[in-house]
Amino acid sequence: MSNNDSSHNAVFYNSKGTVFTLDNLCSAVRDYIVLHPNDSYEIVVGTDSRTSANHALFVTSLVVRRVGNGGIFFYTRFKEKKEYTIRERIWKETMVSITLAQEIRSRMKESLGEEIFWNKQIQFHHIHLDVGVKGPTRELVDGVTGVVKGFGFVPVIKPDSYGAFVVADLYT
Length: 172
Prior knowledge:
The protein has five helices and seven strands; from the N terminus they run ββαβββααβαβα. By secondary structure, the chain is an alpha/beta fold.
């Protein structure tokens, strides 16, 4: 997830603090979905960050929402010893979210079958961004949403991007 790490060896946590590898995380998501196989699900990824002194903390969340009936979430975090401008942080957040979403979506297709995405039972195409049309990130909205679209995902911005500015923000 940082330049030295990849999502393959990232450590994830759930709300209870249970530790998951990426493989464990994908299994937990699969298990959650197969408990109620006829329900519809929305899976989103979003990243938030915070800076202090000479480092930045990035937190990425994976939210699995059983439409109309709750959900679960996981998060991972990493620190980088670097001073970031807000522009650099937002771009890093965007790319971290896209990378993790690609990896998890690929693994979910392998474990649940690609047809589960075709019949729209599982919607896994939203990347939640910590930007909005108001505030200091407004100039970045067009750029980061364009990149998200270019990678085949649908960008969601504030105030609807709860995966980034609510869930991930809890752990930054």
